């Protein structure tokens, strides 16, 4: 796991000093080693920060260059099938100097060209310079576990693992993109290839980009898509599917346990991480597990469930309890999210990453299980909602939605569901996690910008074309919420602590199994969720394990905003004289929060944006 920075240009690069400054800024992604490389024609420069996990020797130093083939790589991630690929390449005549997965990527590119990416099973973001074809090739993994930002002008392409590394360049702009800001205020993140800043982009998951160093032309293409599920309900016996899932997920866990450094498991006590623990215990006699809990709110504390699993599998278990008085809010957590993202569970995720990092350098987590196997509560709620709405005339649903939007204040429980009941039942999805509707978004920025419903239109165009409602929801979350919220949260908090987190559920074989072989009726119904995972849990987990809980990794936001350091930060930030947002809307939100409305995440969205824009000196 590492941090990468670079530039490719059609012109001679006169000043590359910013490369060192940029890599120093993301040192947390790789504190073990630093490397820098420039091509002979001075048109390409790479910087690298290394977190040594596989092959700790200097032979795995990056950027890695193979002179006889004219190829160089800077790579962030882990390739879990690198041993199999290495053996295959050796049979094809290739030899290796190191034992690293980085060299396997380079040799695979040399042998198969751009199609080599289809053979990789792992999480990755890379840049390869091919001196023979004069191209710069950038790639990103299928699920979007590893980030890759870029900025393009008329003759150069700049890229990095984190946006902040690009902002170190003195001549790159910092203007906020209005449409992206609208998405942020509506959804809590900026979806797809978009970025919060004008002119910047993210390379989407499952995509490759080529930049021609001769003429500056850029091409982006998708090398992988979710498989199509043509199943009728259900064609396979569920017991056979459970057995197959156990083998596939078990193989993913086994391959991700490979490391030359200490390794642990983030055990929340939920079904996803508990299954990872169960499968890991089959392949290791010394499994380390870690969990955190909250002293002042049992509703958010799952440590007893984690303890049950740890005891059953005889793991070396460590847990940490925190409360509002002991929780020390560190703005650096927010600054680490150099593109704002609204998910207050970043705090406990950072805390548990910090805890693990003092014991291990690598950890396995349960991310992806909800999106693949129908674990979120809204899958059941919306399925029930759809059944009810099918009986109501569209004109009645439209009237109810209009009344809700006009008269029910934000923060009132159930408002988002009422606002969204006029959605298209045959091919649409309601935005029930909406932070601010478009009228409130316009009011928040007052006269500083004229807002239309950009976010709603952008989101509408990203809804998967699938007739099955559950499939539509899970695919939507896999392609949007997972890469732009969950995986961003995990990557930034873990890497801020120089910890590599791996997700066995996001092994390509597990993903393709979930979306090609598991019918939606085995994922979620109106009354049940994670149906096939629960069957696997019945087989592997303790008999008294509660399979029906769905807690989620979050903090007691409502409680902590009543008093304490988090409340002080929120109120001080939003009431400051230079706050960007409209004072009357802010006052209304703060007052309604004190009166018991649930606006904690909305306030967090505004606080995070304010702290971010001041830190990075961005402007509208």
CATH architecture of the largest domain: 4-Layer Sandwich
The CATH class assignment of the largest domain is Alpha Beta
**Total strand count, please?**
17
Instruction: Give the strand order, joined by hyphens, for the main sheet.
Output: 2-3-1-9-8-10
Residue share in helix: 25-40%
Largest sheet: 6 strands, antiparallel
Shape: globular
Radius of gyration: 24 Å
Pairing-aware structural class of the strands and helices?
alpha+beta
Going by CATH, what is the homologous superfamily of the largest domain? Aminohydrolase, N-terminal nucleophile (Ntn) domain
Beta-strand content estimate: 15-25%
Give the uncertain stretches in residue-range form: none
Describe it.
This protein has helices at residues 17-25, 82-91, 101-112, 163-167, 178-187, 238-256, 271-283, 303-312, 331-336, 346-357, 369-373, 377-389, 394-407, 415-419, 438-444, 454-460, 469-496, 508-516, 531-540, 557-560, 565-574, 583-594, 600-615; strands at residues 2-9, 33-38, 44-50, 64-66, 71-79, 122-130, 135-140, 149-152, 156-160, 200-202, 207-212, 218-222, 263-266, 288-294, 316-322, 362-364, 500-502. With 620 residues, it is an alpha+beta fold. The protein has three domains: 2-171 and 202-222, Aminohydrolase, N-terminal nucleophile (Ntn) domain (Glutamine Phosphoribosylpyrophosphate, subunit 1, domain 1, 4-Layer Sandwich), CATH 3.60.20.10; 238-374 and 499-540, Rossmann fold (3-Layer(aba) Sandwich), CATH 3.40.50; 556-620, no CATH class. The strands form three sheets. A six-stranded antiparallel sheet has the order 2-3-1-9-8-10. α7 (271-283) links the parallel β13 and β14 (288-294). α6 packs across α7, α6 crosses α19 and α7 (271-283) crosses α19 (531-540). The model has no long low-confidence stretch (mean pLDDT 91).
């Amino acid at each position: 796991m590492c941090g990468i920075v670079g530039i490719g240009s059609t012109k001679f690069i006169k000043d590359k000093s910013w490369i060192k400054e940029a890599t120093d800024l993301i040192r947390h992604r790789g504190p073990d080693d630093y490397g820098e490389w420039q091509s002979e024609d001075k048109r390409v420069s790479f910087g690298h920060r290394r977190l040594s996990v596989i092959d700790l020797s200097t032979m795995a130093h990056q950027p890695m260059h193979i002179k006889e083939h004219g190829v160089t790589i800077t790579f962030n991630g882990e390739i879990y099938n690198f041993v199999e690929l290495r053996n295959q390449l050796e049979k094809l005549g290739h030899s290796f100097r190191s034992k690293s997965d980085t060299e396997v990527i380079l040799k695979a590119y040399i042998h198969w060209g751009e199609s080599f990416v289809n053979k990789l099973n792992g999480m990755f973001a890379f840049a390869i310079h091919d001196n023979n074809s004069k191209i710069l090739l950038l790639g990103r993994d299928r699920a979007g576990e590893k980030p890759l930002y870029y900025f393009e002008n008329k003759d150069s392409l700049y890229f990095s693992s984190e946006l902040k590394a690009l902002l170190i360049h003195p001549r790159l702009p910092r203007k906020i993109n209005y449409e992206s800001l609208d998405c942020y205020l509506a959804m809590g993140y900026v979806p797809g290839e978009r970025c919060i800043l004008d002119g910047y982009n993210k390379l989407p998951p499952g995509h490759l980009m080529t930049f021609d160093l001769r003429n500056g032309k850029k091409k982006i293409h998708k090398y992988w898509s979710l498989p199509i599920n043509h199943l009728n309900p259900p064609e396979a016996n569920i017991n056979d599917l459970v057995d197959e899932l156990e083998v596939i997920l078990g193989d993913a866990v086994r391959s991700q346990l490979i490391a030359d450094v200490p390794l642990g498991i983030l055990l929340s006590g939920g079904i996803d991480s508990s299954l990872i623990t169960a499968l890991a215990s089959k392949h290791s006699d010394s499994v380390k597990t870690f969990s955190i809990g909250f002293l002042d709110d049992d509703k958010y504390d799952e440590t007893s469930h984690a303890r049950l699993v740890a005891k059953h599998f005889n793991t070396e278990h460590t847990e940490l309890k925190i409360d509002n008085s002991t929780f020390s809010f560190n703005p650096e957590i927010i600054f680490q999210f150099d593109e704002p993202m609204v998910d207050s569970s970043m705090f406990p995720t950072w805390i548990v990453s910090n805890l693990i990092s003092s014991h291990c350098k690598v950890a396995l987590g349960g991310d992806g299980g909800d999106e693949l196997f129908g674990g979120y509560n809204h899958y059941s709620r919306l399925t029930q909602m759809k059944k009810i709405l099918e009986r109501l005339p569209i004109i009645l649903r439209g009237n109810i939605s209009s009344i809700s939007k006009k008269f029910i204040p934000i923060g009132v429980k159930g408002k988002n569901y009422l606002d969204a009941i006029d959605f298209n039942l045959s091919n649409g999805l309601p935005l029930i996690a909406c932070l601010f509707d478009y009228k409130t978004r316009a009011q928040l920025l007052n006269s500083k910008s004229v807002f239309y419903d950009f976010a709603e239109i952008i989101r509408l165009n990203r809804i998967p074309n699938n007739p099955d409602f559950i499939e539509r929801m899970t695919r939507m979350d896999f392609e949007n919420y997972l890469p732009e919220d969950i995986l961003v949260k995990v990557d930034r908090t873990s890497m801020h602590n120089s910890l590599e987190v791996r997700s066995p559920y996001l092994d390509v074989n597990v993903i393709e199994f979930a979306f090609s072989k598991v019918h939606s009726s085995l994922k979620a119904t109106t009354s049940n969720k994670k149906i096939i995972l629960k069957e696997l849990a019945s087989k592997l987990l303790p008999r008294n394990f509660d399979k029906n809980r769905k807690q989620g990794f979050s903090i007691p936001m409502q409680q902590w905003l009543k008093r304490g350091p988090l409340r002080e930060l929120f109120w001080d930030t939003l009431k400051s004289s230079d706050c960007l947002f409209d004072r009357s809307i802010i006052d209304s939100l703060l007052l309604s929060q004190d009166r018991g409305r649930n606006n904690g995440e909305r306030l967090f969205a505004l606080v995070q944006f304010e702290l971010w824009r001041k830190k990075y000196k961005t402007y509208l």
